[in-house]
Amino acid sequence: MTTDSAPAGNKSLTQLLLAFGALGVVYGDIGTSPLYAFNETFFGHYPVSRNPVDIIGVLSLFFWALTLVISVKYLIFILRADNHGEGGVFSELSLIQSKGRKTPVFVFISFLLAFGACLLYAEGLITPAISVLSAVEGLAIIAPGFKSAVVPITVVILILLFMVQRIGTGKISRYFGLIMLVWFLSIGLLAVPYIIAHPQVLEALNPVNAVSFLFTHQFHSLFVLGAVTLCITGGEALYADMGHFGRTPIRIAWYFVVYPCLVLNYFGQGAYLLADGTVFNGNVFYSLAPDWFLIPLVILATMATVIASQALISGAFSLTQQAIGLGFFPRIKIVHTSHELHGQIYMPAVNWLLMAGTIGLVLAFKSSSNLAVAYGLTVTATMSITTFGFFIVATEVWGWRKVWVAPVIFFLFMIDFTFFTANTLKFLQGGFVPVVIGLGLFSVMWLWNWGRGKLGEVYRQATLTLGDLFALKGVEWQGRMPAKINFFSPSPVVDENSQISLSLQTFITRYHMLPSGLSFITVQISPQPVWNGPRVVKYNLPEGMISIVIRYGYMEEIKLAEILERENIKGSILVGDHEIVSDDSSAWHNLKVRAFRNLLRLALPTYRYFGMRGQTKIIKEIMPVEFTKKTAFLLDVE
Asked: What distance in Å separates the CA atoms of residue 289 and residue 301, rounded to the nearest whole number?
């Protein structure tokens, strides 16, 4: 979204409205961290002693983590790495791929960024579980008898949350900003009296206290940093959602609302411990609230955590759509829930897998404190990868001088890497769960990319051009069949030197004739989120043939049926259906071939993904392909 052409007054108002909306989508995750982050430090699995020096030291770590990682790294640097306004790790990948390099280093970087995206899925599983659990745990403070009901209530809330995804959240989302504004103001104001009563807590602003804490506690400080990580877990979501609101509104919302309110609340929790206040049920956050405000705060916290969960779920949908558009993930069903906004989508398969995984985590870990142990490792790994990706984008794509960029990025990367190292200590206590999830998703992406690469080798071997079409050796022409058939072509067919599609070559080899009406259809997915050029380009070819090239951005809904109708392209569509076989060279190779074959079966057929829903007759041409260790080739057809 851009407001560059708007009058100054309207532009400012638009930016403020977008900043208001960002509160409800971008900052839900990081905004609900005060529910559990500070508790984990002093009442978690590796608690710090509650003496004034340690309280000030821990608070200093919280403050400087928010300042350096979010305020400086993400808000000043990372948000610059947008791809036509869209953010997220896949935007960095698109920018790098736009250089067109295929060197081993760039291939490695591409897969590293794809792995970072897989780790974001793991975060998307944990965030709803830990956020809703931590909010509902407030019931145990109101009435200790409710403690046994925390998990069942959490599961019910999560089931309802995932069930409503199919109807879309456009109408509900307009209220998200208001609820989150009330949330941030409430948690900020809640802390003010305690800070006024104990102003010594402001000593935490001095970074010397953070450094002193790390040196004093040495190895144990790594466990503390693992808990401090929880206050910055929404950084990647902030970057991924940039396309919805823009860079400036996100910065306005952070610096004027989110950042000050978060700092106030953390300092208020620290001041409460300095006052040696009674901590109910090991929860400092809820202990700040007066009795009359406790029930409203639990309700408000539950709404805020549901909003935070919604943002992560919607982000998982968008992330999957981008991965499909970039060729890193099998095609799956996408339902658009809004006629006005193409970005509002619903993916049934992703939704139900997320629900199963999230509820499974709640049932397995049972409390936000236990889940906090599993949280952090994947987040910090993704943050480190994003920082590294930004360095590549800045130096290789934008041409920034390495001598100036390297010291700054190295400093920020070392902060990320320090947090990552601290969280590796939690691997056996539960941190392995999101890592396994991320590795599983990455395996799917790698396998899909490998299989598509093999199929690409088959297409590269098929060098028949349009000019060669009537001079095929071994083909005795039987004339033209009285039918109009359209063929998908991976590359545009524009003249006699253009390579024709493999499905057409298989068709004429098998039937020894051509259809009387023949059209080539090429759908190209641009690395841009939204294609701004001509949607359709048509070419008139010899012998009455037609070729049309249709272009989309990787985040757009493909509506091929509408375009074919508008362009008056009649007839059936012939699609190639690959029958993958292996050369039995090794057990590992055969396993990969079988796995890729299963992915092909699960993936949405090309014609359906392109928006063909029964409007046109589909003819499938079976193309047997053999995968060997070194290459792949098309087998002879009869």
From this structure: 12
Q: Which one-letter amino acid corresponds to residue 582?
A: S
Q: Tens digit of pLDDT for each residue in 275-291?
A: 888 888 778 999 999 98
| Both tokens assigned to 345 | 């989508």
Cβ neighbors of 218 (< 8 A, separation 6 or more) are: none
Q: Taking a C-beta distance cutoff of 8 angstroms, is the pair 35, 285 a contact?
A: yes
Alpha carbon distances (Å) from 80 to 18, 243, 519: 18, 12, 43
Supply the Cα-derived Rg of the chain in whole angstroms. Answer: 28
Tokens of 381: 């790994």
Q: What is the DSSP letter of 241?
A: T
Identify the CA nearest to 57 among candidates 212, 267, 227: 212
C-alpha to C-alpha distance for 82 and 233, rounded to whole angstroms = 20
Classified by CATH at the fold level, domain 32-452 comes out as: Amino acid/polyamine transporter I (1.20.1740)
Cα–Cα distances in angstroms (integers) from residue 57 to residues 54, 188, 224, in the given order: 5, 21, 11
- In sequence order, the 6+-apart residues with CB closer than 8 A to the CB of 20 are 177, 178, 181, 253
* Helix 207-217 and helix 219-228, axial crossing angle in degrees, nearest 10: 130
CA distance 52 to 159: 43
Find the length of the chain: 638
- In the chain, domain spans: 32-452, 462-634
C-alpha to C-alpha distance for 329 and 317, rounded to whole angstroms: 12
The mean pLDDT value for 229-238 works out to 86
Q: What is the pLDDT of residues 589-622, one digit of tens each?
A: 889 989 998 998 888 887 787 877 665 678 787 8
